[in-house]
Design goal:
Strand content: 15-25%
Helix content: 40-55%
Number of strands: 20
Number of domains: 5
Largest sheet: 5 strands, antiparallel
Structural class: alpha+beta
CATH architecture of the largest domain: Orthogonal Bundle
Length: 635
């Protein structure tokens, strides 16, 4: 054949024919994908990462293993189309590209893990341990086989994984959430306000005349979308949080009293304050001479003037016990049963003599008896924190084995809650908020982004706990007819008119409050009652809806605002705001740091891996990816 080609190419006719034949072959190569050879790709290479690659075989293996794991967890078959729609193919590819990039970096850094080290690390992994807590060889072999590996192949794969972990551990080593970030979250969560408010009922404005059928129909046509039956979802939840599993009854009265005494000044009122003047003398003799003068009627300010002291340094003003730099000086000041002069207190700067001119007694909004239930609950929640972590691991193990949420809860001695109908605002079918819905809006948002049968991530609670949830059913939204909602349309028209009139009236009241008029005077004028809410924070309360609480914090202290509440109007005045002292060593601060750290670690790793992949260069063979996941066949 080759001789025939050589002879044929000896004349110009043969050469022309040969050129045409070769042209057709080249074009056919390009059409059927062999052109990838000239672009650095082959039919077996799905992605090139620097000098490494992700093979089609490796991708298919990882893709099928993950698909099998998801199917076991959901207990139903998952099609390739469903997997692609959820982005599973791209997630697997991204993971494999990252692994290849990190493997190259590990080789560059000359990192290595011996067989002995890998075996020791594998033996310490809980997933390979039996009920007795020891390494289970049969369990190890089964997991390796399920992942499509021989024992030796699985060991080699894990050695690479440990090398990659060396790099990622170095990247995030020592990374801690900034104190400023933790403090900002602490202040946001714990800032409390005192709110004076009045409720303006619709009866304060004149009622509108009944609308005609034509007006009702026109109103309905213009707002048809407002009269739709909302989508409802049936949810099963499992809550594991310090407040949920804590046992307040186990807290002793002594512990509760001690905790109350520690926090009462910050949470439940104003501590005792004293108007203090203070002079520091160089010697005890000078201090005693000053005290003798003051006891016979001498003036403290005159004495300070004789000593040529700055009044600002002498007059401390109204101070609390905690305001004193030297605790002994503060103790002496607050030990006086009435205004007077203390005996000299020796400090590093000299003998301190203090005069108490007046005493402002402590005022507390809650006695110990009133605050005892919440104090006990908080102490119990703090003590339950370690148990929360143990239960979290136990439930995750149950879920990984394919059990339903109810089965997982039962296995750890807990119970699930079922909510038959929840809309996207966290309300029931009657439009009323579901008060005991765990994690509130965060859970609702996550549930409406999920679907029936989907394995969901947990939702965090404010106190450092977890909420697992399943969507058990979806009742789609639908458009209602005019006849179905005629009465609702009439009520909506009446309510809208009343709300507009109330809004105008509320706007006038807010302006008068901001101008300095007392809310009590305005309430008397309107014939309504003034009410006060203490210790209002950015958290759920039974007396206020979430949107009302948000408005409380949208207004500056000593200012007023208004918000719609049901069919009435809520006018409020922010009397004061208290920002708690930040303690970076408190349990809450440590919990916040624990919640922030994974997100910071992930962000840092994403940046590192992204920079590494950019430096190495990544090329994806899109056609090979589609072929590996069956996308070409489904077209």
């Amino acid at each position: 054949m080759l001789e025939g080609l050589r002879v044929a190419s000896q004349n110009w006719i043969g050469r022309t024919i040969m050129a045409l034949v070769m042209g057709v072959i080249v074009v056919s190569f390009a059409i059927w994908g062999v052109g990838d050879v000239f672009r650095g790709m082959t039919s077996q290479r799905l992605a090139r990462v620097g000098s490494g690659e992700v093979s089609v075989e490796a991708f298919r293996g990882a893709y099928q293993n993950e698909l099998r794991r998801i199917q076991q967890r959901l207990r139903r078959a998952i099609t390739n189309e469903e997997a692609r729609q959820s982005g599973l193919d791209l997630q697997i590819l991204e993971r494999l590209v990252t692994e290849v990039a990190l493997d190259q970096k590990a080789r560059q850094l000359q990192l290595a893990v011996s067989d002995e080290t890998a075996q020791r690390l594998l033996a310490s992994e809980k997933v390979f341990q039996g009920p007795d807590g020891k390494f289970d060889a049969a369990r190890f072999k089964q997991i390796a086989n399920d992942a499509g590996f021989t024992e030796r192949g699985f060991l080699a794969d894990q050695k690479n994984a440990y090398q990659r972990k060396m790099i990622t551990d170095i990247v995030v080593a020592g990374v801690e959430p900034p104190k400023l970030m933790i403090e900002a979250i602490h202040r946001f969560r714990n800032e409390s306000r005192t709110i004076d408010y009045v409720v303006l009922p619709p009866s304060l404005v004149a009622a509108e005349s009944a609308p005609s059928d034509e007006e009702l129909k026109k109103y309905f046509d213009e707002r048809e979308q407002s009269f739709r039956a909302k989508e409802y979802r049936k949810l099963t939840t499992l809550v594991v949080s310090p407040s949920a599993i804590g046992k307040p009854e186990s807290v002793s009265a002594e512990d509760a009293r001690k905790f109350y005494d520690e926090v009462k000044s910050k949470r439940y009122g104003t501590p005792e304050k004293r108007d203090v003047r203070q002079i520091v003398f160089k010697t005890d003799e000078e201090a005693q001479a000053a005290i003798a003068r003051l006891k016979v009627g001498g003036d403290f300010d005159a004495l300070a003037a004789e000593l040529k002291l700055n009044p600002k340094d002498v007059n401390l003003g109204l101070v609390e016990l905690r305001d004193f730099g030297d605790p002994r000086v503060g103790a002496a000041v607050f030990a006086l049963p009435q205004p007077g002069v203390t005996e000299p207190i020796h400090t590093a700067f000299g003998a301190v003599v203090s005069q108490v001119r007046s005493i402002a007694p402590a005022v507390y909004s809650k006695t110990f008896e009133q605050a005892e239930p919440e104090v006990r609950a908080e102490i119990a929640a703090q003590r339950a924190t370690p148990e929360v972590r143990k239960l979290h691991e136990a439930i995750e193990d149950q879920r990984a084995s394919g059990r339903t949420l109810a089965e997982a809860a039962k296995a750890v001695g807990l119970e699930t809650n079922v909510y038959e109908a929840v809309d996207d605002a966290g309300n029931d079918r009657g439009g009323k908020p579901i008060g005991n819905l765990p994690a509130g809006p965060d859970l609702v948002k996550a549930a409406f982004a999920s679907d029936v049968g989907v394995d969901n991530d947990t939702v965090a609670t404010r106190d450092g706990g977890y909420v697992w949830y399943e969507v058990n059913g979806v009742e789609p939204a639908r458009q209602k007819t005019f006849d179905e909602v005629k009465n609702a349309v009439a009520e909506a028209m009446r309510s809208e008119a009343a709300q507009k009139a109330l809004a105008d009236k509320a706007g006038d009241i807010v302006a008068r409050l901001n101008a300095g008029q007392p809310i009590e005077d305005l309430a008397k004028e309107l014939g309504v009652q003034t009410q006060r809410a203490n210790d209002v924070k950015r958290e759920a309360r039974p007396d206020f809806t979430p949107n009302v609480i948000v408005q409380f914090f949208e207004v500056s202290p000593r200012n007023a605002g208004s918000v719609v509440v049901d069919n009435a109007r809520f006018v409020f005045f922010v009397r004061d705001a208290t920002t708690p002292v930040f303690d970076p060593n408190s349990i809450e601060s440590k919990t916040i740091a624990q919640q922030l750290k994974p997100a910071l670690d992930n962000d840092l790793l994403e940046q590192y891996v992204g920079g590494l992949e950019k430096a190495l260069g990544v090329d994806i063979n899109q056609r090979a990816l589609e072929a590996a996941t069956g996308a070409e066949r489904d077209r």
